[in-house]
Amino acid sequence: MSSGDQGLHQDRQGVGLDRTDLAILKLLAADARLSQRRIAQEVGTSPPTVAERIARLERAGVIRGYRAELDRGLLGFPLVAYLGVVAIQGPEQAGVVEALRELPEVEDVDVVTGPMDFLVRLRVRSHEHLRDVLFGRVWTIPGVQRTQTFISLGRMEAKPFDQALIETMLDRLHD
Predict the structure, then answer these.
(1) Which of 108, 154, 162, 165 has the fewest CB atoms inside 10 Å of its own CB, making it the most exposed?
(2) Measured distance CA(164)–CA(39) in Å, rounded
(3) DSSP of 110-154, one letter per residue?
(4) 3-state helix, strand, coil in the chain (%, to 5)
């Protein structure tokens, strides 16, 4: 990314993947703790081949990491709020993104089209905590012109999106 894009994530073009790569990714998306030996058994190849392919997928950025999925509500942050942020126009927007990103309550920031510039997902302990984050930190970020707040009343169980996406890619290989 250029220095003007610092802090803004840009989508990249796809990486050429074959059926074995996709099968490995599908297994890892379902359970990232699978051993390379188990993956090799499932895809019908050797553990060293699986290790080489996983390393290649990591180097290419297809596999971005491995992590535990935490229940943030049980950790004391049950309230999800979304902020639509309108910022000043120009190269200073990258600074707004970075300042938002540094707030511990911010889960992610998306650059969006439409009447807002950014969509921010926050995790907070309570309505009072949300108020403190908005008044004391978000609204003091240079370049933030205004915000619109949406409080989540509930959430559907996450669907296995990565697995479904990989299945679609595998189906295309048949065509």
Answers:
(1) 154
(2) 18
(3) EE-SSS-SEEEEEEESSHHHHHHHHHHTGGGSTTEEEEEEEE---
(4) 40, 15, 40
In angstroms, rounded to a whole number, what is the distance separating the alpha carbons of residues 96 and 7?
9
**Cα separation of 67 and 97, whole Å?**
24
Encode pLDDT of 61-85 as tens digits.
999 999 888 889 999 999 999 999 9
Give phi and psi for 106, each to the nearest 5: -85, 120
**Distances from the Cα of 168 to the Cα of 26, 147, 163, 164, angstroms:** 11, 37, 9, 6
What is the spatial distance between Cα 16 and Cα 48, in angstroms, rounded to a whole number? 21
Nearest to 142 by CA among 97, 111, 79, 81: 97
The reported pTM is 0.73
Which position has the higher pLDDT, 18 or 9? Answer: 18
Kindly give, in sequence order, each residue whose CB lies less than 8 Å from that of residue 169, ignoring residues fewer than 6 positions away. 17, 22
Domains, the chain, with CATH or none = 19-68 (1.10.10.10), 79-151 (3.30.70.920)
